[in-house]
Amino acid sequence: TQEQPNATSYDATALAIITFEVFTGMWINAFIVSVLCTGWVKKKTLNSNEKILLFLGCSRFLYLCVSWVYSFLSITYPKYLYAYSMLQLVLPIQTFLNYFKLWVSACLCGFHCIKIANFRNSFFIYLKAKIDRMVPWLLLGSVLLALAISILAYDIAEKLHSKNRNSTCRGNFWEESIKMEEHLFHIYFITGFGYAASFTTAIFSALLLLFSLWRHKCNMQTNSMKNLSMDAHIRAMKSILSFLVMYSINFICLILTIVYSAKKNENPTMFLTYAFLYAFPGVHSLILIFSNPKMENTLLRILPCVKCKLCMK
């Protein structure tokens, strides 16, 4: 009798924390999208960096929306989630948006590395000259990869739903669970491979950029160049280091979701994992805002106005 209220209070706390993180992240990414769209209307064009940021902001906003719906249903109405085939609808959309935002963020890291880093390699110089033309193809490739994995997720969700229904009717739980474990191995393998590939791309690009900035900083010190330029490079290096730490933790959390979903365990570690995963899109987008002077100035202009309106109310 005491376990039921404890479980209910734990679910309510988890849902409240997830809701706060999700709606904060949605507001931050909606701000990025609105600033970019406003600039698009004024200038009639977007540069390559703004295109990637626009796709990243939209994908993260939609991902947080769908993830909140999935979390709300799984915590509040778990039977409805499975009984009325909601899983077949929500899971593929969430999978598509999850992979799409991961690959777009990896594209953003690669784009910044190629644009900012300074290496004398001929292939790197070729990429630097062609990167603006490659950006639309990179975004299209991200869409196709995410779509392929989401189709596979839909197929798995469909078979999971049908097997659960059939096993409930026949009472054949052990045989059906073994068949399902064999089936889920493929989706776990592909999911892990997708996470590892995007993580490797982002980390490798960030490390190259960090090395290039560090080497440039050393050259500025030996050549006695202005401290202002060197301070800018130090700030950029700190930003990249913070991104490396955050992205590494995000990758570990993604892998933990695979491990714990395979074991079907619900524990505080899993809650902390999902809490960080829901916080990452908002926190990283906030870092992107403060690394962009235009967005930072717009945000700093908006915040006093919002504060004044709240005080007046």
Automatic annotation (TrEMBL):
It is found in: Membrane. Keywords: G-protein coupled receptor, Membrane, Receptor, Sensory transduction, Taste, Transducer, Transmembrane, Transmembrane helix. One of its GO terms (molecular function) is bitter taste receptor activity. Pfam families: TAS2R. It comes from the Eukaryota. GO terms for cellular component: membrane. The chain crosses the membrane at residues 12-41, 53-76, 96-114, 135-154, 187-214, 235-259, 271-291. Gene3D superfamilies: Rhodopsin 7-helix transmembrane proteins. Its main location: membrane. It is a multi-pass membrane protein. CDD domains: 7tm_TAS2R. Belongs to the G-protein coupled receptor T2R family. This is Taste receptor type 2. It comes from Calyptomena viridis. The gene is Tas2r40.
